[in-house]
Amino acid sequence: MTVTKQRTIGRYTVSAIGLGAMPFSMGGNTKPSHEQAVATVHAALDAGVTLIDTADIYAPSWDTMGHNERIVAEALASWGGDRSGVVVASKGGITRKSAEQDFRRDGSVEYLREAALASRERLGVESIDLYYWHRPDRHRRYGESIEALATLKEEGIITEIGISNANVEEIRVAVEVLGDGGLAAVQNEFSPRFNHTSYPELQYCHKHGIAFLPWSPLGGTSGGAVAVGDRFPVIGEVARAHHASPQQVTLAWELSLADNVIPIPGASKPASIVNSAAAIDLELTEAELEAISAAVLNR
């Protein structure tokens, strides 16, 4: 299997694997220090990763909204390389306003605008490269929130539009509202552990030229990623055959599913994202890929 090292999200060309920055800000005692988080971003960029994914609600507590975006912005500003080709994606539409775990959804025109403006300021950019509506707000018409994103794009507050945690019907609505080429990306959970609903979403996006970005592509930070080779023996077997990590094999398999797939594994240590980025160069045989798909893919 030969995997292209770069893939497209709307007008952007990015590395085939991105960095999920959420672990910098959430995870209790497992969160890295500020210095380690910045070092992890730098390690990703040095390894050729050119897509960083963040969100306004990635924060240690309800009153520190934007924590993750600030770390990403600082890391980019302090990196010594050329950041002109680095794409930063953020998300809005979930609120944290009163208690530690009080996550609520607000897809109103007013709130999405407020959230996007705040994210733009924290990231220190004129326009957010890629901005996702984070989760559907079931209290309002889906197309209404998509129209709000279209307005943000027209005003130059955001450059490309994405949606996250969306089913096929919601993706279809977004495409209808935005027109051909208007929806740049869909970010949904997808991994060997979780793909019973998201594989059809991946396929729909591929058919319509929309980038599909798996979050938690290794199975989650609560042990799923570490144990992926044990939970799925075929992945462990292929990893041993290639002297690679099970995580690299998992990401290489996901990349093989379609040329619109861009996994965004989370990382809290430089070594983790460097290991993940190396999956781009891992070549698996068709037989190995089919064996993994047969064992883990619900299709």
Automatic annotation (TrEMBL):
Signal peptide: none
GO CC annotation, single: cytoplasm
InterPro entries according to UniProt: AKR, Aldo-Keto_reductase, NAD(P)_OxRdtase_dom_sf, NADP_OxRdtase_dom
Gene3D superfamilies: NADP-dependent oxidoreductase domain
Pfam entry (one): Aldo_ket_red
GO molecular function, one term: oxidoreductase activity
Protein keywords: Oxidoreductase
Record domain NADP-dependent oxidoreductase: where: 17-294
Protein name per the record: Aldo/keto reductase
